Amino acid sequence: MDKAQQMQSFVAVVEAGSFVGAATATGLSKAAVSRHVAELEQRLGVRLLQRTTRRLSLTDDGQVFYARAREILGAIDEIEVEMHSHTRKASGLLRINAPLTFGVLHLAPLWGRFSQAHPEVSLDVTLVDRVVDLVEEGYDLAIRIAQLHDSALVSRRLASSRVVLCASPSYLRRNGKPRQPQDLAQHSIVGYSYWATRDDWSFTGPDGVVTVRTSPRIRANNGDTCRAAALAHQGIILQPDFLIGDDLRSGALVELMPHFRSIEIGIYAVYPTRKHLPTKVRRMVDFLVESFRKPPWQVDDRR
Q: How high is the mean pLDDT of the chain?
């Protein structure tokens, strides 16, 4: 008996809630579905389903097997779609959403290369810092810079960015350098509104995690504005190195308290589903993965 067929029948029963519903979903007879599940349980040596006259429910073993079986069947579908997509041209309108600053600095230079490689794809790029609903707002793909929590979306990691505490040399000459996180209370802070923890800044130091409450004298919902304020010697910022990497290299901004590290955030391509993924989306994701294999913003901070 085909192991994949047994898994498919079992998953169909769980998702349909009955053998009759599974038979309808798979196009098999109820007897065939029932036989597949029984043979699967016999082969594994465990009971996966509790059957009563009124309802079906998963056993503990059944819950574990169901989760893994869905992953395996999903991977099989993904491989088949991927193989099929290699034989098809990418075409059509591709709607992409990305954060404003990252989109301008690091994505805009890439679109020409992609369009040249895939001339039948039209790009519609929207840059906005709020988190959009891909399905509701009709996007094929989004770039997210965060620690992802939405399990309903499929994500592929493109790169990472280190969040750096820094200020201009001129500001530091006037005000001195903070030596530990608690010293930030004595400094002018330029805050970023969209941080998940807002004014609570956390750092990992020699003795573990330290969190301090900052009181920004300037606050902005855009990283470019925070960077501009720091370059104008207005205070200390906490921003990702994809935005300030060039400033750190040139010395226009100086990293502070390097022995206290802030978070590292992931940069992801996210899309609604793996199933029947359009060729245009797959080609774009593969293109972005390759483009960010060596992120241009990363500073060699070896000391």
A: 88
- Are 204 and 270 part of one and the same domain? yes
Residue 115 to residue 121: CA distance in whole angstroms? 7
Whether 265 and 149 map to the same domain: the answer is yes
CA angle 215, 216, 217 (to 5 degrees): 120
- Residue 113's pLDDT band (cuts 50, 70, 90): very high
- On whether residue 163 sits in a domain, the answer given is yes
* Cβ atoms of residues 20 and 30 within 8 Å: yes
Phi (first) and psi of residue 175, to 5 degrees:
-120, -10
- Rounded to the nearest 10 degrees, the angle between the axes of helix 241-250 and helix 223-231 is 20
Q: How many helices (H) and strands (E) does the chain have?
A: 11, 13
Co-location of 116 and 50 in the same domain: no
Alpha helices per DSSP H over the chain: 3-16, 19-26, 30-44, 60-85, 100-102, 108-117, 134-137, 169-175, 223-231, 241-250, 279-291
d(CA 163, CA 263): 6
State CA 230 to chain mean position distance: 28
pLDDT in tens, 158-185: 999 999 999 999 999 999 999 999 999 9
Kindly state whether residue 222 falls inside one of the protein's structural domains: yes
**Domain interval for residue 14:** 3-85
Q: How far is CA 168 from the centre of its chain?
A: 31
Closest-CA residue to 276 (of 133, 88, 142, 41)? 88
Q: In this structure, is the dihedral angle defined by the CA atoms of residues 163, 220, 270 and 70, taken in order, positive or negative?
A: positive
CATH number at residue 73: 1.10.10.10
